[in-house]
Structures are given as structure tokens and as C-alpha cells.
Amino acid sequence: MKELWVEIPSSASSSEKDKLQKLAADKADFLLKDNCARNSSGSEVTVISNFDEKTIRQLKRKGRKIALKLRVKGKEDENIAVKAADLSTDYIIIDCLNWRVIPLENLIARTRNKSKLIAQVENAEDAKLVLETLELGTDGVLIYPSNSRDLTKAIAIVKEQEPKVSVIPAKVNVVKPISTGARVCVDTCDLMASGEGMLVGVQAAGFFLIEAEVHENPYVQARPFRVNAGSLSMYTLKSLQKTQYLSELNAGDEVLIVNREGEARSASVGRIKIELRPLILVEAEVEGKKIKTILQNAETIRLVNPKGSTPVTELKAGDEVLVHLASSAGRHFGVSVPDETVIER
To answer: Are 9 and 115 part of one and the same domain?
Structure first.
């Protein structure tokens, strides 16, 4: 799990400081103040701002946890961070002043399994960048939130890196070829594995797990970046809280990628392809609810099941597929409205 460190700016108002203090006490791993980081369980980390081998060794002999706070302005500072890691400094907090990504990549590679690397960031968007750099990301972030809203966003990004989605087996009861229609291929900027894909459905209350094109066949190469997601009027999940029509997706948008265990992550859309293709309706029943999806009728479109996946062309009544049931409340532009009742069929 990634760590969230918080330092409350002295410029924040008294009321805002109180809000930040409460949020940090509840959600942050450490609150940094006066060269000491503390958490709610009583753990302390001594924060030093200058690299001194003798000081680090003395503090380590006393059993103290240490964090070196370092501004990275060039290669020399990067090398100092590595020296500190070699001395088993517990944390290295870095502030990359000019170049951000390349020094981070270097330090993630050079300090891994020696020290925990914490990147100083200004906002939640920067937190997302550093946590994904070099795929592994930093071990956490130190943020100076100007208000409680910024800290809430950072908490969502740092502490919810690995959301879980409930996926359960459902029994197929209808497989029905229908007329030609517009279907959407979602080409992402990521690679997906077997059993991984997107959740797609007619109703915002029920989604089928459609596998990415990860399987090779004699006629088409695998395209593990792609989900042939279905009719353009289908819903998909952009996040755990928000749906979107497939027709509305554009390059640069984010979609939710899910596997059969319910592990979820975000991926950026690289391209959307909308073409006229023969379609097929699939209906399944689970927990007394009937849910549906409309997909392209072709062998490369597969629905994930508990043990593998089945091409939609081979699907039949009685087969099991994995689905996600969401709230049956109404939605306004993809956001759940709990008090609104909507009937979808």
C-alpha cells in the first residue's frame, strides 16, 4: 500500500488547519511537523534536511527511523539519495525542482528495496503521476494541501490505488442475434491479460465482463490493448462511482479495467473505433435480476467466466458468465442519484 504524508502549510487559515488536521489524523500515514513525522499509532520518523553519514549512523544505532528530505536539482543530488539508501535510511523524501519524471525513474530503480521513496507533490494530479512513474511508482507522496478538498482528492488517489469490484457468476438465459448496428472498439494505452477487460451493459445496474482481445487465432493477431466493447448505447464504468455511454468515450478519457477476481485499475483511452457490425443480445439472470448487454456478433468477442472465457458465438443458455451488479438507482450524466427510481429493460 502506498503511503500518504501530509505537511499542513502555515498559510492555511485556522479553520482549514483544523479540517486538514482531522483528515490527516484519520487517513494519512504520517503528519510532518517541525522535522518530525508522527502517526496516530505513535510511530515517529526523524526528518533531516542535510545528508550526513555520521548523523544517520548515530540515529540508526539509537533505533530511530530516519527520513532524508532532499531537493533534487541535478545528478549530484540523485547520487546523494542513493548513498542515503545504501545506509538504510528508512525514507527518502525528494522534491524534483526542474525535471520530475526522469530523476524519479532513476531513483525508483536505484533505491528500490533499500529505502522507501516519498515524492513531494503540490496536488492530487501530481500524486497520480509519481505513483505510476516507471510502472512501480514511488512508495508514497508528501503533499502540502492548501485546503481540505485537495487533501480529500489526494487521499482518494493514494489510498485507493487498488479498488475492488464485485464480480459474480450469472446464468445466461437468452442469446439472440439482432440487426446490424454501431459498435465501439475501445483501444486503450495499456496491455490487458487473460481474464481482464471492461464492464459493459444495457442497464447501469448490471454489467458483463467483456474480455480484451488477448487470444490469438488463425485469422487475427491478438490485440491486448483492445476491448471490443459493444453497441454504442451501452454503459461502461469509468470509475467505481461513474458510468458513461460507450459513444461518449474519447482519446484521453479513462475507463475501468477489471479482471475475474474483481481487481480494478484505470486505463487511458488511446482511440475509439465505431463501425457498423452484426450485433447479438445477451441476457443473464442473477439474484433474481435480469441484465443484458449488446455486443458485436463475432468470434473474437468473449465473455469472461469463472474459469476462462467464452466467445459470444458459442454462448448458450445455461452458461455462466461474470457480471457486476450496481445500484438500481437512477443516474444523472453517469452519477448515481439514490432517490431517483428508474426502470431499465
So the answer is: yes
| Rounded distance between C-alpha atoms, residue 121 and residue 129, angstroms | 10
Give pLDDT tens digits for 113-134: 899 999 888 887 888 788 877 5
Q: Which amino acid is at 155?
A: I
Which range marks the domain in which residue 200 is found? 168-341
Q: Do residues 65 and 46 touch, judged by C-beta distance below 8 A?
A: yes
Helices 14-27 and 148-159, packing angle to 10 deg: 10
The packing angle between helices 75-86 and 101-111, to 10°, is 20
* Same structural domain, 14 and 149: yes
Contacts of 244 (CB under 8 A, 6+ apart): 235, 236, 238, 253, 334
Residue 220 CA to chain centroid, in angstroms? 30
Alpha-carbon gap, residue 302 to 309, rounded angstroms: 6
Cα–Cα distance, 19 to 26 (Å, whole number): 11
The residue from 103, 130, 159 where one domain ends is 159
Per-residue pLDDT, averaged over 171-188, amounts to 96
Secondary structure (DSSP) of 326-341? ---EEEETTEEEEEEE
Is the confidence at residue 100, as pLDDT, over 80? no
